[in-house]
């Protein structure tokens, strides 16, 4: 007798802290790209976000997608996990499980567990405006937990560039779901509007906005995404 297949109506927000200045990161970037590609093919609610940090820039190559705000976000996770230290590549699933980002097996296990867990808070996103310098969205949620925050990230796929210096000198790197803009704000109501400032206009054919409701700096309890090109998932 065959047991019933586990339900997979949950979601997985996969955040990875990475850098073009770190020679351990390209293999993890391949893992992240594979996760995003597989989820899109299967129609699963897996949302990948590559946060490029800036603390590797001193080795001779300033990551063009790096930002101090991304480093601060990783530091907040380090305090929440009680680890005290930062490293790349670090992958975090739904704010509660962290591991080395190149570990395919652990990534698959954490994502499977997340997809089998029903979401605690529904979330919807609607693009109101997507211009050269900003993206405006309306959001709606269900009942909110204490210390609820709405994180919103503009991510872009298929970015490539040459790296002339640093640990990856001489390589041409490709990154998918790179965080190009990010905002986190306390939620005071179940409906509202949020605006993202964008320094470089994304290609709408390969850009998405991912929104996720998080309890402080830990558990992610709801998530949704909308492709700037043609729809949501």
From TrEMBL:
Pfam families linked: DUF1223
Annotated SUPFAM superfamilies: Thioredoxin-like (SSF52833)
Entry-linked InterPro entries: DUF1223 (IPR010634), Thioredoxin-like_sf (IPR036249)
Signal peptide: none
Protein name per the record: DUF1223 domain-containing protein
């Amino acid at each position: 007798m065959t047991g019933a297949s586990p339900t997979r109506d949950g979601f997985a927000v996969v955040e990875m802290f990475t850098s073009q200045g770190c020679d351990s990161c390209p293999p993890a970037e391949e893992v992240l790209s594979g996760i995003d590609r597989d989820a899109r093919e299967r129609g699963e609610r897996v949302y990948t976000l590559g946060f490029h940090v800036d603390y590797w820039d001193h080795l001779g190559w300033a990551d063009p997608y790096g930002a101090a705000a991304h480093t601060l976000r990783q530091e907040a996770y380090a305090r929440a996990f009680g680890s005290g230290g930062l490293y790349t590549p670090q992958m975090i699933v739904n704010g509660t499980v962290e591991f080395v980002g190149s570990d395919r097996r652990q990534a698959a296990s954490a994502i499977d567990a997340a997809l089998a867990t029903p979401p605690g808070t529904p979330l919807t996103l609607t693009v109101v405006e997507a211009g050269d310098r900003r993206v405006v969205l309306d959001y709606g949620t269900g009942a909110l937990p204490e210390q609820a925050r709405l994180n919103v990230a503009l991510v872009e796929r298929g970015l490539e560039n040459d790296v002339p210096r640093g640990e990856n000198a001489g390589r041409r790197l490709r990154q998918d779901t790179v965080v190009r803009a990010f905002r986190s704000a306390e939620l005071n109501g179940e409906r509202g509007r949020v605006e993202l400032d964008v320094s470089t206009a994304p290609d709408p054919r390969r850009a998405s906005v991912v929104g996720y409701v998080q309890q402080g700096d830990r558990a992610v309890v709801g998530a949704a995404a909308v492709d700037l090109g043609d729809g949501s998932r």
